[in-house]
């Protein structure tokens, strides 16, 4: 299935971030707080505690080092982009190479856990190469995170939208905007706020001030975000609690 026309697909850039060196702690205050053109601005330090459910999904490996963004949506479940765990060609990353740090801020974080397993949307790689319109995955943590309140899944698709995550210009501090407009494009949501490498998998939210997750950032198109909406597969898996089962 071709989900986007050839001309449109040439403008789409996936946003997983390959890092040139170790994921060492750095002082997030050393980065300019004034956002550059084409990036989400840093979240004010006094608001970071409100967004500890958003974190970094770090990848380590013999020849691979990188990160995406992800959101805690249940005590042991993350929502992120499929290509963050399986790449553009569906080549899976071993779960033991993945680690989530909630509320990452320099060397500090609210909580963390290695990854036990994950599942990508069943249509994400149905035609071998990634179908951007289904670029979404659920990641299951080895250790449930109880110190952080998960974000709720919403069903209202109406602006203003919010985007949150980590990007290459400021990888050690959460960045976000809460005033984005948006419109549907095919089965995606085009959100006119800028995204960069590292923002992949970060949550798109609606319904502020009680923000709820309605999708994940997949890619950029002309610098702005392409968001994969939460669909019935995601809702169904979360309702089933697989593999998490609440008491």
From TrEMBL:
One of its GO terms (molecular function) is serine-type endopeptidase activity. Residues 1-25 form the signal peptide. Residues 18-239 form the Peptidase S1 domain. GO terms for biological process: proteolysis. PROSITE patterns: TRYPSIN_DOM, TRYPSIN_HIS. InterPro entries: Glutamyl_endopeptidase (IPR050966), Peptidase_S1_PA (IPR009003), Peptidase_S1_PA_chymotrypsin (IPR043504), Trypsin_dom (IPR001254), TRYPSIN_HIS (IPR018114). Keywords: Signal. SUPFAM superfamilies: Trypsin-like serine proteases. This is Trypsin domain protein. It comes from Salipiger bermudensis (strain DSM 26914 / JCM 13377 / KCTC 12554 / HTCC2601).
């Amino acid at each position: 299935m071709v989900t986007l026309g050839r001309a449109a697909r040439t403008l789409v850039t996936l946003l997983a971030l390959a890092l040139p060196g170790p994921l060492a702690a750095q002082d997030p205050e050393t980065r300019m707080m004034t956002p550059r053109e084409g990036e989400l601005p840093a979240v004010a330090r006094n608001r970071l505690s409100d967004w500890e459910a958003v974190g970094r999904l770090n990848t380590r490996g013999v020849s691979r080092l990188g990160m995406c963004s992800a959101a805690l949506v249940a005590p042991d479940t993350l929502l992120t982009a499929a290509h963050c765990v399986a790449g553009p060609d569906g080549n899976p990353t071993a779960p033991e190479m993945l680690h989530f740090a909630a509320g990452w801020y320099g060397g500090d974080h609210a909580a963390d856990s290695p990854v036990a397993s994950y599942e990508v949307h069943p249509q994400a790689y149905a035609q071998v190469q990634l179908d951007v319109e289904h670029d979404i995955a659920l990641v299951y943590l080895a250790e449930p995170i109880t110190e952080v309140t998960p974000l709720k899944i919403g069903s209202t698709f109406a602006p203003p939208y919010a985007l949150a995550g980590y990007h290459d210009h400021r990888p050690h501090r959460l960045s976000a905007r809460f005033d984005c407009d948006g419109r549907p494009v095919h089965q995606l949501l085009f959100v006119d706020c800028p995204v960069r490498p590292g923002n992949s998998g970060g949550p798109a939210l609606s319904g502020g001030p009680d923000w709820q997750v309605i999708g994940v950032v997949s890619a950029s198109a002309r610098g702005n975000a392409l968001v994969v909406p939460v669909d019935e597969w995601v809702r169904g898996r979360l309702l089933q609690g697989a593999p998490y089962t609440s008491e």
